Amino acid sequence: MLQTVIKPNSYQDSINLMLLTNKINTLDGVIQSQIMMGTDANKDIYKAAGLLTDEAAAANPSDMVIVVESDDAAILDTVLAETEAFLADLSVKKEAAGGPAEATSWEEAIAQLPDANMALFSIPGEYAAPELERALDLGLNVFSFTDNVPLEDEVRLKQKAHEKGLLFMGPDCGTGVISSVPIAFTNVINPGNIGIVGASGTGIQEVTCMIDRLGGGCVHAIGTGGRDLNEKVGAVTVKDAIVALENHEPTDVICVISKPPAPEVRDEVVDLLEKCTKPVVAIFIGEKPEAHQGKVYLAHTLEETARIAVDLANGNPVKKNYLEPLDFTCDEPLPEDKTVTGLYSGGTLAGEAAMMITEALNLGSIIKEDGYMLRHGGYDVIDLGDDVYTQGRPHPMIDPEVRIKMMRDYCDMDTTGVIVFDCVLGYGCHPDMASALAPVIAECKAKAAAEGRTIQFVGTVVGTSHDPQDYERSIKILEDAGAIMEPSNAMAVRAALEFKGVHFTEEDREVVPYEVKDTSPLPEPSEAVMELLTTKPRVINVGVESFNDPLRAYGAESVQYTWKPMAGGNKRMIHLLTELAKVEGIDEANERICQRFKESQPQLVDVVVAKDVIPELNREKKTLLHAGPPITWENMQGPMRGSCIGAALFEGWAETEEEAVKMLEAGEVEFIPCHHCHAVGPMGGITSANMAVLKVVNQADGTTAYCTMNEGIGKVLRFGAYSQEVVDRLHWMADELGPVLAKALKLSDGGINLNVLIARAITQGDEFHQRNMAATLNFLKEVAPLIVKTDVPEDAKERVIQFLADTDQFFLNIMMAMGKSIVDYVRKDEEGCVVSTMTRNGYEFGVRVTGLGDQWFCAPVNTPIGLYFTGFTAEDGCPDNGDSAICETVGVGGMAMVAAPGVTRFVGAGGFEDALNISNEMEKICVEHNPNWSIPTWDFKGTCLGIDIRKVVATGITPLINTGIAHKNAGVGQVGAGTVRAPLACFEQALEAYCAKLGIE
User: Fold this and answer.
1) What's the CA gap between 888 and 770, in Å, rounded?
2) In what residue span(s) does the CoA-binding domain sit (predicted)?
3) Cβ 37 vs Cβ 17: under 8 Å
4) How far apart are CA 597 and CA 591, in angstroms?
5) Do residues 288 and 144 both lie within one domain?
6) 492 and 554 together in one domain
7) Which residue of 72, 227, 232, 268 has the lowest C-beta tally within 10 Å?
8) Whole-prediction pTM value?
């Protein structure tokens, strides 16, 4: 039985999830499990394991997917509890460690470390290319531990880095040292005067550790990724690194380590090395050099490479032969039918072992297929770090499980005589690999002995005395378990061959002349690369958090970019966002748009009859304005239909509900969005000809907007109620409330300045969508003296003032008209990608964008989540309605939740901490802040300003809207209040259209 749990938008790095999976698989009752992110590549792994459920197949790349196979349905509770405990423990450890500063975007990361000079990547390869390119565009050198980057992307990105004067280290760059600071999976090496360029991770580790143990030291070990000497890549990074080390004064010796290169590229690299003034040692693994060439000393093994480098660094002459005696003598060779097996966590070490065994036994040439570096007549050498073994599992340097199984499997084979292995220490590796392997070695030797067989384990520890696992201790643990330990991988292989009666030898090597093919002078290194090599690195760490540990321990600065897939892993959106990032002028346009927001000067100047100012309401055909994007009667939900019925009764178009419904169903009424008429309407948004509307003028250029007045609470038209009480109130508002307010406003000096009123009320706890108490009272404070001065009857004055005093939400509709006057002014600049309208009609959520004019981008609207009045539940709630999201469009309402801690629990958002988190989240999708409306509870930051569709799509964060909740049936009214999210699809559609406008396919 398979059980699946999806945790939406819950990104964790793959290493943590692999370790968690291993832990879950040890639980009693779990047959097998897999916990991964819902990427396409990971779904293939689920499928191969027989764990791909329908829910897992439908998951998004940013979702954490938990699939458990068990015969016990109750086991899932245990799995979820263990998962929560594991992730919580990570969080506690991180907090206790007092780690580096954190960022959730490139912008934040750069703001926290403005002089950063390197980005360190350890993210899934399928999403890496756009992020790697972004780092280059930000002027950062790149170190990409990330692998599985397509070769064509590597070629393009490395060429771009070269043109920008930056180093691109990787992809699949496992280790490095920059200015004596260890990077990624790395050992702690003594500083020194040797500079290494390596297209091999464990090759670098083996050589640097031997240099350290021989008394030398390294200043740099520049990893390039294993494909750098590929014919298509052309050794771009190797060449740039060699030129940089030649010009780096503290580097006295240059050492180059390469996996088997393309012949033409190898010759180009050797040509370049011959032009260097500094002594050079190089190894092209798989080659057996017969002589040194010109200035370049060529090594056969990694051990020899280290020994030559140390001699050169000490000013000693290079010997003709570096074969050192072994630490042991083989007294009892194995029978002829016994073979040698290599089980390696390091790919280059496996390659070296395969090369040496192949040469010694004349087995042909090394291979690399299905994880095997050698597979010939029982002689197997396996790279357990190959993709075959690491898909969905931690690397064997982290987790010994696969190697332990392999050791036991080969121990059970009668032909196995010797197992050669590595034990790699350093940052990023298993905290005590020797202790994990030692019991298995002892177990296997004892089992073979009990069966009358002999099996030998010969190993090497790749590490130094400075590594956190302790080199000497690791060797002793393995020796105590019965393993024969040698100081290098080459010596371990030689020892294994001794058990076969084979003595590995090296021929003396002389120096032969070399004629340089390309006589052009060495190029000059870039300033950026030399700056990287002459200072401690300043790193933005994108991915695995533990990579910060060695950086900070050895004096580098780092910022943790808590990356998750852009656009939720939607590759189409990632492509569009990446292309948009290359377009100049968008940010400037958005800043200009935001300036229009800030310079707006809305004034409440009048209350008028709707038909007198909205021409569309004077048509021959009966017409109603409604909230949201365009909609038909058939798609209207209960509250909006109820509002239409109430408006028909108010206008006298019908005498009864039945007559009104018949007329509406017959198509006798035309429906127009309020937004098409410079108007807005709350909830149902229905505005008819004879209703009274507020008139707000934006003094920036005279842009005018209208909104009906707030009816109060309870059974009101905006929530779909249409009883006689509702209709009577609407008539009173049109016949008395509106005219009285109109007369009062005419006595003011140009109306009421709404910016000032907002600035005042936001300091008093309003967010202007759900809570308007302070703003309403401030409005009453402004308008009451004016009402008193009018010539209307005293009882009318009293009724109007009492209504305003009783209607806490009265200012909401003023806020809406104000917001509409601002966005219609903003929309006159038809550039940029800032949201200029958000609205909903109970059926669809609609968005407009500055650079796309009047075009609507719509998606099904969500239903609010919140608190319900007594007697009602979520089953009664209607999908969201209303133009009141204009509040959030201009930066208040849910966008400014932190301003109104008194209302957060009413709308279901929890306490103040939740309100703060919401506003911090909303900040991530906006261009800037509005200094006109400063929030004391947010350290006096201004409200969020300018929702950027790029940021919404990239982060997956959609605007949060505070809202009332209407009953789904017409005529009932409000049943609660809460919050609702705008659907992401609106913004994705807008992004598609915006890219199309700019010619991006």
Assistant:
1) 11
2) 191-286
3) yes
4) 10
5) yes
6) no
7) 232
8) 0.80
